C-alpha cells in the first residue's frame, strides 16, 4: 500500500493528525506527524525502509518522548509519553524501539548517532530508557562511548556512569564489552564503581569488579568506593557483593593498596571461602601490611575471626610481624 501511494505521487513528507498507539512505552494519542514518524512508532520496518529509499525527510522532530531533563544539573524526569520536548526521529526510534533493531539501524544510515540534543546523544537516551537492544545497535553503528552529558553547570557524566547509577547491568556489560573506560571520572572525581556503591547498585558493583574496575581510586573528596559504602550506611551490601565476586575466583583490582587491599578486605570480613579463593591465586602476598603496619593475620586476630586466622597461619602468614605500634598478632589479641 505504501509503495502504491508513493508511485501515485503522494507527498511523503505531508503532516496529518494520526492516532498513534504503543504498549511500551504506553501511548494512545492523536499527533500531527509525518508518515515516517507513524511508521517508526508503529514498528513498521518495511514502511520505514520504503520511505527512506524514496527520500523522505529525516530532519523532522516530534513530541512523543517520555523523558525530560534539567539542562543545568542533568537530573532526569519521567514525564510521560508525549510530554517531553520535541526530539529527532532517531530518538523516537530508540524510545519506541522495534525488537530487531532494524528501524533504528535503517535511520542511522542517514543520521549520525552522535548528533547532540540538549547536551545528550542517542546513546545517553538509550541508557536513560533502559534499552539494551538500542544500546547494542548504537554501539555497532559508531556511537561514541565516552561522550559526556553536557550541562550548563559543567556537570559531566558518561554513559558508564549513567548505567551504574540506574542499575542497568545488561547495558553496563554492553559498554564494558565495547571497551569503555572503566575508571573514567565525573566532575566530582567519581568512577562508575563509586556511583553504583553510592546508589546501592550491588549487581552493577559485581559487573564492574569482574571487569577489573579499580577499587584503589578516590574522588576529589578523598573517598574510595569502600569508604563511600561506609559513609552511606551500605557497607554490608558492598561487602557481600564483593565477597561473591572473590569467592568465584576474581581478585578485585586496586592500584593503591593503602586505599583498598583485597586481602585485608577479606580478612576484616572473616570470610573463609573468600580467603581460600585469594590464597588459591598463588600470587597473593600474605604478609603485605597497610599504612598502620597491619597484615591480614593481624586483622583476623584483632577482629576475632578464628577460622580465618587459622587458615592464614596454615597458609604461611608470618605471625611475628609487627605493626607501627610495635605490636604483633599476640599483642593484637
TrEMBL record:
<protein>
    <submittedName>
        <fullName>Ankyrin repeat-containing domain</fullName>
    </submittedName>
</protein>
<dbReference type="InterPro" id="IPR002110">
    <property type="entry name" value="Ankyrin_rpt"/>
</dbReference>
<dbReference type="InterPro" id="IPR051165">
    <property type="entry name" value="Multifunctional_ANK_Repeat"/>
</dbReference>
<dbReference type="Pfam" id="PF12796">
    <property type="entry name" value="Ank_2"/>
</dbReference>
<dbReference type="InterPro" id="IPR036770">
    <property type="entry name" value="Ankyrin_rpt-contain_sf"/>
</dbReference>
<feature type="repeat" description="ANK">
    <location>
        <begin position="118"/>
        <end position="146"/>
    </location>
</feature>
<keyword id="KW-0040">ANK repeat</keyword>
<feature type="repeat" description="ANK">
    <location>
        <begin position="292"/>
        <end position="324"/>
    </location>
</feature>
<dbReference type="Pfam" id="PF13606">
    <property type="entry name" value="Ank_3"/>
</dbReference>
<keyword id="KW-0677">Repeat</keyword>
<dbReference type="Pfam" id="PF00023">
    <property type="entry name" value="Ank"/>
</dbReference>
Amino acid at each position: 500500500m505504501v509503495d502504491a501511494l508513493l508511485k501515485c505521487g503522494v507527498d511523503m513528507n505531508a503532516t496529518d493528525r494520526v492516532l498513534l498507539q504503543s504498549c511500551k512505552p504506553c501511548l494512545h494519542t492523536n499527533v500531527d506527524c509525518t508518515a515516517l514518524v507513524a511508521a517508526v512508532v508503529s514498528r513498521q520496518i518495511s514502511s520505514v525502509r520504503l520511505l527512506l529509499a524514496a527520500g523522505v525527510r529525516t530532519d523532522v522532530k516530534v513530541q512523543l518522548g517520555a523523558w525530560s531533563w534539567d539542562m543545568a544539573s542533568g537530573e532526569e524526569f519521567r514525564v510521560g509519553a508525549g510530554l517531553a520536548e520535541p526530539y529527532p526521529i532517531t530518538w523516537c526510534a530508540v524510545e519506541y524501539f522495534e525488537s530487531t533493531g532494524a528501524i533504528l539501524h535503517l535511520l542511522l544510515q542517514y543520521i549520525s548517532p552522535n548528533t547532540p540534543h540538549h547536551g545528550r546523544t542517542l546513546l545517553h537516551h538509550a541508557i536513560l530508557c533502559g534499552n539494551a537492544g538500542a544500546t547494542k545497535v548504537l554501539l555497532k553503528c559508531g556511537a561514541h562511548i565516552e561522550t559526556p552529558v553536557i550541562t550548563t553547570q559543567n556537570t559531566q557524566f558518561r554513559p558508564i556512569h549513567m548505567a551504574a547509577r540506574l542499575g542497568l547491568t545488561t547495558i553496563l556489560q554492553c559498554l564494558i564489552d565495547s571497551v569503555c573506560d572503566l575508571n573514567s571520572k565525573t566532575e566530582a572525581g567519581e568512577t562508575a564503581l563509586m556511583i553504583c556503591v553510592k546508589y546501592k547498585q550491588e549487581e552493577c558493583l559485581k559487573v564492574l569488579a569482574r571487569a577489573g574496575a579499580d577499587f584503589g581510586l578516590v574522588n576529589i573528596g578523598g573517598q574510595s568506593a569502600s569508604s563511600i559504602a561506609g559513609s552511606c550506611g551500605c557497607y554490608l551490601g558492598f561487602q557481600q557483593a564483593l565477597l561473591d565476586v572473590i569467592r568465584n575466583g576474581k581478585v578485585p583490582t586496586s592500584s593503591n593498596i593503602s586505599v583498598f587491599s583485597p586481602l585485608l578486605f577479606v580478612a576484616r570480613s572473616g570470610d573463609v571461602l573468600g580467603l581460600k579463593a585469594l590464597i588459591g591465586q598463588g600470587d597473593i602476598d600474605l604478609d603485605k601490611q597497610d599504612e598502620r603496619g597491619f597484615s591480614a593475620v593481624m586483622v583476623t586476630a584483632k577482629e576475632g575471626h578464628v577460622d580465618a586466622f587459622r587458615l592464614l597461619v596454615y597458609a604461611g602468614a608470618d605471625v611475628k610481624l609487627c605493626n607501627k605500634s610495635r605490636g604483633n598478632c599476640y599483642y593484637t589479641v
